[in-house]
Amino acid sequence: MRIEKILVVGSGIMGRGIAYAAAVGGFQVYVQDVSEEALNTAAQHIQKDLATGVVRGKLSQGEADAAQHSISYMTDLAVAAKDVNLVIEAVPEDIGIKKSVFERLDQLTSPKTILATNTSTMSPTEIGSYTARPNQVIAMHFFNPVPKMKLVEIIRGLETSDETTEQVKEVVKRMNKEAVLINEFPGFVTSRISSLVGNEAFHMLMEGVGTPEEIDKAIELGLNYPMGPFKLGDMVGLDTRLKNLQYLHQTLGERFRPSPLLVKYVKAGRLGKKTGKGVYDYTSE
């Protein structure tokens, strides 16, 4: 089976980024979300990213126009899932939500359709168990912002077939990204490291080691990170960062216990850019 039609479930920051990458890669793309407002927001962001790609010389105007026309937006999952070859789920990091989505996808898609999850920490083996096709379930972990980040972690579940893995590797290549094949273990590679760094930054902020600006600058210039842990956390969403840490704390132990200050920020609704305030204040933007 050659993959030509891709459905992205979820139109948030990651979902719309994955849709962008798939469209630029030449795929027919369907973006599904229960919220019409979220879909409209996603369409606006994708259009802006395509325009930026043209300005920066990454895309020709013809390529941007073709990508724009290759994307369809819809709220009805049954309609969106009907004829696709690959589904990439990009819903919140909540195993209950993912279970519900994959159970429905298993019923709504063709038996040949590959089902992928964009989870950054959770088990593709467990997610595959919610379907009758665990051999066709795999994790594709993209990175934010997807239009700029080259890496995709591919994580096989216990039952994932070689054929599924090779097809997904080819999809990543067509998206002009680099794949690494990771053995399944909680947090994979990048999420474990990123979660530790981000959590330690919150500990340092709580201890008064420095301001968010000083800590971010030290990490960026001293360790050559492109973005400091607070900037990254605000972009990804502090609620997402907390959920990842809670899962890793549960599965890997005490070193991943979330910082009390991070917990406090999330309880206060300071989730990052999406709410206008996280570690930094974005209300003037």
Automatic annotation (TrEMBL):
Entry's EC annotation: 1.1.1.157
Single GO MF descriptor: 3-hydroxybutyryl-CoA dehydrogenase activity
Entry annotated with the keyword Cell inner membrane: no
3-hydroxyacyl-CoA dehydrogenase NAD binding domain boundaries: 5-184
PANTHER family (UniProt xref): 3-HYDROXYACYL-COA DEHYDROGENASE FAMILY PROTEIN (PTHR48075), 3-HYDROXYBUTYRYL-COA DEHYDROGENASE (PTHR48075:SF5)
Chain ranges of the 3-hydroxyacyl-CoA dehydrogenase C-terminal domain: 187-282
Protein name: 3-hydroxybutyryl-CoA dehydrogenase
Pathway: Lipid metabolism; butanoate metabolism
Classification via Pfam families: 3HCDH, 3HCDH_N
